[in-house]
Amino acid sequence: MAIVDWRRRLLQLTSPSRAEDRAGLANTPAIGRMWASTAAMHARLTTGIRAEIDRSMITARMTAGRRRKKADGGKGEGSYPFGFTKNGPHPDEQATLARITSLIDRNGVTLADAATILNSENRLTRSGRPWSRQNLWKVRRNALRF
Question: Torsions phi, psi of 141, nearest 5?
């Protein structure tokens, strides 16, 4: 049984594959094809190892930078939630946040209807876009976390 498996493996190594045929290695002696595939495998392995090392170095650098920024009194990651800035509450956004709360919590308006009402009052998101039910949901979720 082991001999058959060994012969099958040798046949696989010595017969050209489609990739080798496309690469022009089909007429190369078997030992040349084996070496070429081993060298390519080694190159891919080396490239993968380098990529992993680079990624871990970038992650370590970013983490250290975030920690430094936080230690210096800054915000380590992400943006401030709607209604707040680096210096504290934003007055215009706080008014919009209060209006959102009154519409949804006190009056029982749906998110889609609240977005329509806010847009009719010419209140815009932080990025200057009209309100939608999706960004209203995100603003409410983030305001509760902050």
Answer: -65, -45
